[in-house]
Amino acid sequence: MTATLTRGAERLNRAFARAEAEGRAAFIPFMTAGFPSLADFPALADQLLAQADIMEVGIPYSDPLGDGPTIQRASEQALAGGTSTRATLNLIRELRQRHDTPIVVMTYVNPIYAVGPERFMALAAEAGVDGLILPDLPPDQDIEIADLAARYGLAVTFLIAPTSTPARVELVARACTGFLYAVSVTGVTGAREGSALGEVPAMLALARQHAQVPVVVGFGVKDAATAHEVAQVADGVVVGSAFINAVREGRDVAALAREIAEGCRR
Fold first, then answer.
1. Which residues form the active site (predicted)?
2. What domains sit in the chain, N to C, each tagged with a CATH number?
């Protein structure tokens, strides 16, 4: 893998450093592109970006194995409304005209291959994407994707979970150039009852022995209290399903984003 620090990695590093200097974990909201519709997504993303240190935008995909029912339904709704990979990048291009906040794309590998790996990287870089989160691509199985991403200035992020072996944690930690994404629980995305930490502290301690990038935690963070809990041990807090649920229930997404961002303080 290319060792040179990419443009995207530099921007992500600055975002994490700024949050750390302010005594908080970075707040990283997630939203599925094109949800609740292509027309309504930009205003929703604006509300999240107003509080975000980094924004995660998901490319809707028909077989999202790592996503829980909340994000799966959001993807289905976005796809039914005409959101494609290219439409997602167009939405990010529009957001980039109004926001300088780093934006990373969460995508399964099939949409990348459907466009063509190099073409995808070129389009993503042109749209203003800073990095990719690749939940179903083991870093030892296709180094072409990571190398192409680096060539186009994009950082890459892979995932670890409580079930990851020490050898796997080391491999993934060393491969990440954006940040390392630690899944707080075994299973799929979605808000849960109780603690959001689970086996996270021990997993992060192991990951930090090898990672040269910040470590963020996602899956199960649903409100300011759980965000605050995670912020004590992680460099960043990812929240997704809670915002999708808020949209579906007609709740104030901007207020929820402010509350969770405040909860990321240590």
1. 56 (proton acceptor), 67 (proton acceptor)
2. 7-263 (3.20.20.70)
